[in-house]
Design goal:
8-stranded parallel beta barrel; 24% strand; 11 helices; Elongation Factor Tu (Ef-tu), domain 3; Immunoglobulin-like; elongated; 551 residues; 28 strands
Length: 551
């Protein structure tokens, strides 16, 4: 995590970002990131999470999660392209150099997106390999016996990765079927001298390693999610971390990648599908080899916190060399989604319960939206626009968690397939970021009711300019207030801004807000420091103590 005051992360991509998107202004993503380095520095961003930077099976059109060659950062002609969707290796290194800046500039950390689960887009395998069909929805149900589509089979899949264009540069490791423990696509299946086509209904768990290799048998990993019985397998050719050579190759790659582009940390993809013990091993190795305390946040998608606590404990307290890790706070994000769809029927009191932000804030990376659930990824999976200012105020102006801003929430987006264009939130997010650095400091007093929640940041610590009161209201077109204690007696608080979504854009109404009546410009606390702070329906309102303002 950034050691800067009230650090903020920025996810600098999204799933539906076109290579010719207007916001990129003719640049690749890496070139645009370089050009935006000073803006990010000036608005208060402390770390940037970049997308997978390596060659994908889908070539120049892929976000990067269908990893084909981890060592090709846009340098070799593979998958019908040299550059990745995001640009060339040289452009990536230039962007990171710009973010790091020189000695006179604020240093912005860079977190690489790390996919340790699988490889994609392999060539046809030369060898049959013994396997068993496994039900996709119950991985503990292996289809042994004499029933239809049961019994021992031999499969050939797309598990051969020679990377001839790279010709052994950076790594001479040759991947083939023996290095994986499961696949979901076979181009040929053989059983009892009969040849079958892949039905697409099963996962094929590979059973054995080559003769003489220890261990002789393969299996799904332990310390993965227990969803579907065992959620080791996710997609494509799944790495077999029961093999020493696979573990070592991926640790070597992690060290190489970190040093090659000078990363400061990682966002670890799909950790629920990878043994927590290997994640610990991988982090420990890369940190030791680079001699750096690299930040790490894992993507463990779960709506319940206990699973996240168990995972954190396994990585941070177990084994010979425990490793520090944070997790993305999906329980909070799912609450934001529900709140945005349910409107005033959602009880805002639930936002401050059963989340990682509440229960283990030092390990929580909080966010409102990301590429997995943004508009168009799944049916109604996204956080609706009207709620986003409330959500961002909740993560940016509170005293808990490490907040992350999502690219299209700041820059906006364009229609693309199932994705509907979003309005940019630059104006209100710039304001919230300033408030985070100057007023979201000191102790916090939190209050909530069904349709209104608020908190006071007390200030009184270095860099704090004064006290701030924040109110979020999910009522439909109804001004509501909440009584909060500010610790300021007989003190005036002035209305700084109310932020709302108007249907096609975000509006920041500063100074006077007529719907607040006699509190349109300000309000007074009583002799004990209490006051009723208000916000309009579907908005967030910010109040600052008199005599101080934003710089």
């Amino acid at each position: 995590m950034s050691t800067n005051l009230n650090g903020v992360m920025f996810q600098f991509f999204h799933w539906f970002l076109k290579k010719d998107a207007q916001v990129l202004d003719g640049k690749t993503l890496w070139q645009f990131l370089k050009s935006e380095a000073n803006r990010l520095r000036n608005i208060g961003i402390d770390a940037v999470w970049i997308p997978p930077a390596y060659k994908a099976a889908s070539g120049g059109d892929s976000v990067g999660y269908d990893v084909h060659d981890h060592f090709d950062l846009g340098e070799f002609d593979q998958r019908s392209t040299t550059a990745t969707k995001h640009g060339t290796k040289g452009e990536l290194k230039d962007a990171i150099e710009a973010l790091h800046g020189d000695d006179s500039e604020k240093y912005i950390q860079v977190y690489g997106d790390i996919v340790l689960n699988h490889k994609s887009g392999g060539d046809k395998e030369d060898y049959f390999w013994q396997a068993i069909r496994v039900d996709k929805d119950n991985r503990n149900h292996e289809r042994w016996g004499d029933c239809f589509e049961c019994g021992l089979i031999e499969v050939k899949g797309y598990t051969k990765f020679t990377h001839e264009a790279r010709a052994g540069k950076y790594s001479s490791f040759k991947w083939n079927v023996r290095h994986f423990d499961s696949i979901d696509t076979a181009f040929e299946i053989r059983q009892n001298n009969n040849v079958f086509q892949d039905s697409g209904d099963y996962i094929y768990r590979l059973l054995y390693n080559e003769a003489g290799y220890q261990p002789p048998s393969k299996s799904f990993e332990s310390w993965v999610s227990l969803e579907k019985g065992n959620y080791d397998y996710l997609i494509d050719a799944d790495f077999d971390y029961g093999r020493h050579d696979v573990r070592e190759e991926m640790k070597y790659w992690g060290t190489w990648f970190t040093q090659e582009v000078e990363l400061d940390g990682f966002r670890l993809d799909a950790v629920k599908h990878i043994s927590a013990d290997y994640v610990r091993e991988w982090l420990g190795h890369v940190r030791a080899k680079t001699n750096r305390n690299l930040f790490a946040v894992g993507e463990y998608i779960s709506g319940g916190t206990q699973t996240l606590h168990d995972y954190i404990s396994r990585v941070t307290t177990q084994g010979a060399f425990p490793q520090d890790i944070s997790l993305l706070d999906f329980p909070l994000r799912f609450l934001f989604k529900n709140a945005s769809w349910q409107g005033e029927f959602f009880d805002l009191r639930t936002l401050n319960r059963n989340t990682l932000m509440v229960e283990q804030p030092a390990k929580a990376v909080t966010f409102v939206e990301n590429h997995d659930y943004e508009y168009g990824r799944e049916y109604d999976s996204h956080v609706r626009e009207w709620f986003k200012p409330l959500g961002y105020a909740f993560i940016l102006l509170r005293d808990k968690g490490y907040p992350c801003i999502f690219f299209p929430d700041y820059y906006g987006s364009e229609n693309n397939g199932n994705h509907r264009a979003q309005s940019k939130g630059q104006e209100y997010l710039d304001l919230l970021l300033k408030l985070r650095k100057q007023f979201a400091l000191g102790a916090e007093r939190y209050y909530d009711e069904q349709n209104v929640a608020g908190w006071v940041r007390m200030g009184g610590v270095p860099h704090a300019r004064g006290a701030m009161a924040v109110v979020i209201n999910n009522s439909y077109r109804q001004v509501k207030g909440i009584r909060m204690n500010t610790g300021r007696f007989n003190k005036r608080f002035y209305h700084l801004a109310t932020i709302k979504f108007t249907g096609d854009k975000f509006l920041v109404v500063k100074n006077r807000y007529n719907l607040y009546g006699d509190k349109a410009e300000g309000l007074w606390t009583d002799s004990n420091g209490w006051a009723d702070f208000v916000a309009d329906g579907g908005t967030v309102a910010i109040w600052l103590e008199d005599g101080v303002g934003l710089r």
